[in-house]
Amino acid sequence: MSNWNNAADGSGNSPENIAAFNDQAVIIQTCHIIEFDIEDAIARDGSISGWTTGINGITIQGATTGNTPGELTLTRTANNTDRVYCLRLKDNTGIIGTNIPVLGRVTGGTANNLIPNVANHTILFLNPPTTGGFNLTYLQLTLYAAQPIETIYVLKQPAATGATVLNVQGRLTGCNPNIDTAEWRVGRGIVVVRVDPAQPETNVD
Questions:
Q1: CA 154 – CA 156 distance, rounded (Å)
Q2: Burial degree of 128 (CB within 10 A; 0-12, 13-18, 19+)
Q3: How far apart are CA 108 and CA 33, in angstroms?
Q4: Which residues in the chain belong to E strands, given as ranges?
Q5: What is the DSSP letter of 93?
Q6: Would you say 30 and 68 are in contact if contact means Cβ atoms under 8 Å apart?
Q7: What is the DSSP letter of 107?
Q8: How far apart are CA 130 and CA 34, in angstroms?
Q9: Which of 14, 19, 61, 110 has a Cα-to-Cα distance from 152 of 20 to 30 A?
Q10: 3-state secondary structure of 20
Q11: Could you tell me the end-to-end alpha-carbon distance of the chain, in angstroms, rounded to an integer?
């Protein structure tokens, strides 16, 4: 934490802990590479990091031609048990660059060195209806991540309307998500991408 200050010239005060960044604006200066490795609970609620409000925006400075811009890079280190890397940003804030020829960078992995699927990242923009998110006007975004072991899970048996338990298995490997893969975890979101229409009932006299 001693490398962070609330003055661009290195003077001022340093934050006491990770939670002290909550609701604070962050600037990554030219030539600085910051590796993001702050973990939170699976629920991504700020309970571990202390970022209940979120970071109040991140500015990544660009550089003049021939020089190195600022960079925010996502760690490739495996998560601890029941943790995910979670960068929470406050309502209507985002990640932006500056209007300088060599754009600031957000990176994660490379084409030959992917972010592994044991290093789970979430960049969580809280309620960004107008200005939140990545503003790529003056920012370069390059992310390389490993594909999931299983991209789709399918039903093992039909599910009745209103069912609260679904029996599923991996489409590619037939794996049981309870024991065979770390990708199916408590707190993860589920998206239903297709539902086959119910067959019409046939009455026989």
A1: 6
A2: middle
A3: 12
A4: 26-28, 33-36, 39-41, 58-60, 71-74, 83-89, 94-97, 104-108, 121-125, 133-134, 139-143, 153-155, 168-170
A5: -
A6: yes
A7: E
A8: 27
A9: 110
A10: helix
A11: 78
DSSP per residue, 158-201: ---TT-S---EEETTT---TTTS-TTS-TT--------PPPPPP
The DSSP letter of residue 157 is S
| Cα–Cα dist 117/178, whole Å | 17
Give the tens place of pLDDT for each residue, 69-93.
999 999 999 999 989 999 999 988 9
Under 8 Å between Cβ of 84 and 37: no
* Other CB atoms within 10 A of residue 78 CB: 13
Q: In the structure encoding, which two tokens stand for residue 136, read together?
A: 């790529």
Q: What is the pLDDT of residue 203?
A: 41
Q: What is the dihedral of CA 9, 46, 132, 72, to 10 degrees?
A: 40
194 band by pLDDT with thresholds 50, 70 and 90: low
How far apart (Å, rounded) are the C-alpha atoms in residues 18 and 49?
6
For residue 131, what are its two tokens? 């200005």
Q: What pLDDT, on a 0 to 100 scale, did the predictor assign at position 199?
A: 47
Q: What is the pTM of this model?
A: 0.79
Contacts of 75 (CB under 8 A, 6+ apart): 35, 36, 37, 85, 119
Specify the length of the chain in residues: 205
